[in-house]
Amino acid sequence: MADNTASVRALRLGVAGPVGTGKSSLIATICRALAGELRLGVITNDIYTDEDARFLRSAGVLEPERIRAVETGACPHTAIRDDITANLLAAEDLERDFSPLDVVLIESGGDNLTATFSPALVDAQLFVLDVAGGGDVARKGGPGIGRADLLVVNKTDLAPYVGVDVPEMVADALLAREGRPVLALSRSDADSVAELRLWVLGMLEAHRRGTHVPQDPGPMAPHFHADEEHPDGGYVHSHAEDADTHPHPHAGASHGH
Ligand SMILES: Nc1nc2c(ncn2[C@@H]2O[C@H](COP(=O)(O)OP(=O)(O)OP(=O)(O)O)[C@@H](O)[C@H]2O)c(=O)[nH]1
Ligand SMILES: [Mg+2]
Hints:
InterPro entries: CobW/HypB/UreG_nucleotide-bd (IPR003495), P-loop_NTPase (IPR027417), UreG (IPR004400). By secondary structure, the chain is of the alpha/beta class.
């Protein structure tokens, strides 16, 4: 097949998962492993801050200008799932400013277990769990755990301290995912970082060849949003496919999960 690396836009790779499981650190690890051979850009999503972008800039793994923050200002998963405009604009800006880019990594806002990216925003997505969240969490399933392109079980170096059996957690995850790939990762385990690097390169190759079809892991489960102005102190909403059926609160409302 002809080399069409110049004609295919950058691979957009989403990184989602619960708060603190190591999404930003994983992006820093990917940048460290691949910045020498690929042209990379990063977009972070936070509700009210640009903390993740600042962390990644200070990690010194990419030129600071290649790392952009989207402040979602509301439900953080809306910005990666329903109204993806801000993220699409940020990706297009990065791709134009540093043309050509090979990969744009997009970190979702830290969340509960339910966030997934729209396939209209990313070509492929990783879902990140960590061993500190408990060995059972992979069994609990959910769209990201079940159907993201890669599930990462992160911080395996901590497993002895939190009493988690990593092979068992990986086996549970493989079952929940019907064989889709699972990677046990620690940033301090070079072999696991090498596997992550190969997975990204493989996905980039498939994207360029047109053999990878972006998958929708499915809408997130209904979840609770705290809202001081709501008579019940909040409301449950879902991200069903029909945008008319799930009104979103005005910007500025407080949120909790
Ligand atoms: N032991 C260990 N700690 C890790 C590893 N990866 C990340 N951490 C630590 O886990 C904590 C959270 O990491 P982040 O990368 O900020 O996690 P995050 O998912 O981006 O967090 P939010 O964006 O706030 O949701 C930090 O203290 C990291 O240093 C790892 O492989 N091993
Ligand atoms: Mg982060």
